[in-house]
Design a protein that fits this description.
Radius of gyration: 18 Å
Structural class: alpha/beta
Helix content: 25-40%
Number of strands: 8
CATH topology: Arginase, Chain A
CATH class: Alpha Beta
Shape: globular
Largest sheet: 8 strands, parallel
Strand order of the largest sheet: 2-1-3-8-7-4-5-6
Amino acid sequence: MLKSCILIGAPIDSGQRRPGCLMGPAAYRVAGIAQMLTTLGHKATDRGDVVHAPLREVTHPNAALHCLPETIAWTEALSAAVQNAMAEGFPIVMGGDHSLALGSVAGAAAHAKAVGRPLFLLWLDAHSDFHTPDTTTSGNLHGTPVAYIAGRAGFDLFPPFPEPIAAQNICLFGIRSVDPGEHAALLTHEIEINDMRVLDEQGIVAPLRAFLDRVRAANGMLHVSLDVDFLDPSIAPAVGTTVPGGTTFREAHLVMELLHESSLVTSLDLVELNPFLDERGKTAKVMVDLVASLMGRKVFDRPTRSF
């Protein structure tokens, strides 16, 4: 099914401490994301980069927190941008570090609540991102979105999440790096965890199809948040949080192809691309290629090219 795609730039690198993610939206544009969408028959409208409102002065007892006012401001701005875009089409949020999902998923949740449908979340990432502002020791707020989305306490300074996503509607897929505090918290929630051990044993298809079947049975909307570090760093080096043992090129494309065939995805994040760490645009091109698979490009349609 052809979509009206709305590209939203989120030039954010305040959720972590390694500069460069703010260049991500520009890299996706240079890598031809809009042209790829139109070639596949979709409509592509680029709304430019989101700009947040002036920062408010906020304080928090966790002295380790990094750029809290900026992250709150981005959350508010992106939530509004994504909610508005979902009323008109299929938003693709080009980031930016993963703290952008605090806002993008909030916007998707607000829209889902307005239309009376449940929202599901597929988190394609090496990390569970289940810390809260209270529990993080690094202070990097890109490690907190899933906790915010699931309704964990500790986000009083953030906008109230429109309607926390039920734990059983969240699927962490491909994770392989979880802090002890996050691990303990996850054991108290019913979030579906398909780490790389599960995927090694069961393969990509069975766990993903089972989750998609639940989305379909509930007439749910599905937000997909794709982190560069979902991929193995050997094929996607442009990320500041590399963890060996990620998905291969073909495994990642299989995930995207299954998502396309499901027709369930209603919004998408592309996060943690740091072009400063890339090799001649290799990672940006791989990410755009993955979006192409999500949007309908078949294996036999794939062009030959060198990176």
